[in-house]
Amino acid sequence: MIFEERQVEKNNFSSRAIFIFLFIGLSFLVVLNQVFLLQVSSYSDYELAALNNKTYSVPIQPLRGEIFDRNGHGIVRNIKTFDLITKPSSIDDVESFLQLIKPVIHLSESEATQYLEKFKEKAFVNKELVLKKNLSSEEIARFGVRRFAFKDAFIGERYRRMSDHPKIFSHVLGYTSRTGDRDGLLLNMPRSHWQDTELVYANGLIQGVTGLEQTYNQMLSGTYGKTVYEINSRGQLGKVLEVEPAVPGEDIYTHLDISAQMSAAKAFGSRKGGVVAIDLESGGINVLFSAPSYSINKLANGMTAAEFQEIITNPSKPFFNRALQGRYPPASTIKPAIAMFGLTKKLVRWEEEIDDPGFFMLPENGRIYRGWNKGGHKNVNLKKALLVSSNTYFFKLAYQSDMQELASYLASFGFGAKVCGDCFDEDGAFLPTPDWKYNNLNIPWFTGDTVNIGVGQGYMVATPMQLANYASILANKGRAVTPSIVQLALSDGVIQNNDQVLLDNKDWINLHDALTGVIESDLGTARSIRDLKNFKVAGKSGTAELVSLDSKEAYQDLRGSELLRDHSIIIAFGPMPNPKYAVSVVIENGESGGAVAGPVAIEVLKSLLNEQ
Amino acid sequence: MNNKLTKIYFDPYLFFSICLLSILGLFFLYSASNADLSIILRQSAYVLLGLLIMISVSQPDPDLFRRTSFLFLVFAVLLLGITFLFGPEINGAQRWIRLGPVSFQSSELLKLALPIFLANFLGDKKLPIQAREVSITLSIIFLAFFLVARQPDLGTGLIVALSGLSVLFLSGLSWSFIGGAFVLLVISSPLIWNVLLEPFQRQRIATLFNPESDPFGAGWNIMQSKIAIGSGGIFGKGFGNGSQTQLNFLPETKTDFIFSVIGEEFGFIGILLLLSIYFFILMRCLYLALTARDRFCRLVIGGLSLTFAANLIINLCMVVGLLPVVGMPLPFISKGGSSLMSLFFAFGIITSMATHKKFLPQ
């Protein structure tokens, strides 16, 4: 190759080499720019992504608040139990481990199988695994002395939610149950992490399902904490990076009174029905009992399928909360309200007398409405009408009333609406109006319908809760305080409304006097309970007819079938003349109001007044 | 020339910067392997052996390489053939060959043999290179590419092809031809995409542009690599403190993705320093190529250093998410004997080409 040619070749090479190395330099800049974008411009994004990669947060379950009665006695508490917990990752030979521990803790075949099923997975990811739940004290002791032989197992505290009075508070307390709704448990954590929750309860993640446990679930629940673990790409947990402790739920102090509730249950015996007692000063609900009942401890901590089946197929429906949801005709217990309506509308006066022949004849069509006492009560004024529970008097008074006005007057006593501030699943029962009847039954409202309302029969129904609320308004001379179970108000605006049912003070005194006479005087329909106590009680009994009949003879035929027998009802308040508590009792198919429901009401009042 | 026997041929700039890289590599590998000493010891042995090879290979006169270039190529192709016939199948690919206790990737040899052979073949051709030579060269390149790519090892195949093409380019391939080839490539790209690429290769390219679309599948590697680098920030998390690396979120930390380890633990500063060393080596190669004694040496230095550069840049672009994931180690840093040996071998040849000067009458 001659020199010029070599020089041309060399120049050619040089320019090409420089060209391509410039291209390489450019590539370096492109890479550097990309690295700059990642490490400097988007640093915070990637820092967060790396953090999310390497950390695994596990919720820590908080302890639920406990529920106390008005005297500070626990109604539902967290009872410690003990579980045997293992660390599979440090157990080399699981079979021999089980063989070794079997004599110590009494391991059933299914428990061992369940354990083995999950063993490998938990060992791999370095998580704990429960071997046996709810150790007996014997097992704990046996394990205790041998614990040096089992370095990879320890006894963990797990709580159960238990009541010392599981049967009598079942409806009002309600129960907790394992929850599937993890979103409701707040905390922004991926769903999958919930299965690794560090549990405090033997039953896992629980939440209130009914009763107070449900109504106050938020307060009782507390706040979940979290443990942040380091985790690698295979999901194995490493060291703990951070612990945010759980905040236990708040304890709840109720107005409930354990001994009064026990008295109610005892007085009820095996009968069905409901009792509600209200503290007149605060509106606090002291007794809320429904019979028959069931054990919340079993329901919350594991019940066999057969036991559960037994409850739901029981014809008496133990789950049904009669105190809040049972719809019963108020019967004669409505008469004080009708009387007050008459006084307010100036339809009657206290001294005015009418003749009670034992029946009322509707002037329009001559239809006969019978009283409970054949032959009637002769000359009856308002006081006597209340004492002897004269149907004729109230038929007549109701006949003179405008139903629209009467309905709205009864509504001011809480009929036809929910009255309790913090009850679970309360029923509003029903207060009829002419419009309702026309729109729903396509029949106009007849005066006869109003006449029936006058004695608390017909379309109108009320719950024991509503009756107790009504009794408390009567006792408080018109002051209506929203009843509530828990001492602090759920939200202040809801609980503390003091509506007033207006009546002249003189009328109130007369009314209290008449209602006291129902129990305390020789004429009163509920005089049979007079001697059960040594304080004065005012009240009004009632007998709710399930079937409308024209004669007592016809009823005698009906009595054969227990479920068609009349309901026994009473509302009462005392001690008179300065009442502290109001109570309502409904006993299904109990017949005569005063004699059957009356003693239950007296027992509850006595217990609340410590007059046992 | 009186000290011919005692003279040791070596280029201090290349030698020390490569030593520095190798030592840094061991250091990074220690962290990337979760402090596995046995890996470090073995890699150290490779580095020492490699340095020895580099110095030894630097000593012969370039003429030796020129004269044996054809044999070298035939030898490399033969090894590929043997790999194809007897090589064990690992992860669905036949890339390795066992010779007694040693096993190595046979394609590594081709990356050296092909540019040297082509430098010799084109080194005495007149400018511009004639169509006949071009077609012979391209056929050889294609054959080499095909042999490697069908292992299958598309990444190394492309590097082999690039090593050949770079020599062809540097030796004076006409610009019109280059332009024509480029147009042809663009036109045929749909064909390449649909016919020549395997489904998994298409998937890799697709995930490059949208790694978040499949964060647990094909996009995982790219995502985790970007998170590792990005979370390193300016100063890095510190040696041994990279959570992406130490908790194994980052894949292939010891090999393909070791750059991400460096990015995570040493940050932007660390990367800047590392890239400076690479850049320095490349600039030194350019200088040596420009001042080499003859056309053959120029072409060999140019071809080998461009192969090195391509290898480096493909790895960098891959781990920072600019190119699809192909198996490609970071030169002098990634774990692995074969690629390290061939790198030291290549730089030994470069040193030989650069340090042996001829004082010919001009």
Automatic annotation (TrEMBL), chain A:
Domain Penicillin-binding protein transpeptidase: 273-605
Subcellular location, record wording: Membrane
GO MF, any single term: beta-lactamase activity
Keyword match Transmembrane: yes
EC number(s) from the headed UniProt entry: 3.4.16.4
UniProt-recorded name of the protein: Penicillin-binding protein 2
Keyword terms, alphabetized: Antibiotic resistance, Carboxypeptidase, Hydrolase, Membrane, Protease, Signal, Transmembrane, Transmembrane helix
InterPro entries: Beta-lactam/transpept, Beta-lactam/transpept-like, PBP_dimer, PBP_dimer_sf, PCN-bd_Tpept, Penicillin-binding_protein_2
Major site of localization recorded for this protein: membrane
Similarity section: Belongs to the class-D beta-lactamase family.
Transmembrane regions: 17-38
Enzyme class: hydrolase
Catalyzed reaction equations: a beta-lactam + H2O = a substituted beta-amino acid
Residue ranges of domain Penicillin-binding protein dimerisation in the record: 60-237
Gene Ontology BP, a term: cell wall organization
Gene3D superfamilies, per the entry: DD-peptidase/beta-lactamase superfamily, Penicillin-binding protein 2a (Domain 2)
CC per GO annotation: plasma membrane
UniProtKB/TrEMBL annotation, chain B:
GO cellular component, as recorded: cell division site; plasma membrane
Cross-referenced InterPro entries: FtsW/RodA (IPR001182), RodA/MrdB (IPR011923)
GO molecular function: lipid-linked peptidoglycan transporter activity
Keywords annotated in UniProt: Cell shape, Membrane, Transmembrane, Transmembrane helix
Transmembrane spans: 12-33, 39-58, 70-90, 129-148, 154-170, 266-287, 299-326, 332-354
A Pfam short name: FTSW_RODA_SPOVE
Classification lineage: Bacteria, Pseudomonadati, Pseudomonadota, Gammaproteobacteria, SAR86 cluster
Location (main, coarse): membrane
Compartments, record wording: Membrane
Gene Ontology annotations of biological process type: cell division; regulation of cell shape
Record organism: SAR86 cluster bacterium BACL1 MAG-120920-bin57
Membrane topology category: Multi-pass membrane protein
Protein name: Rod shape-determining protein RodA
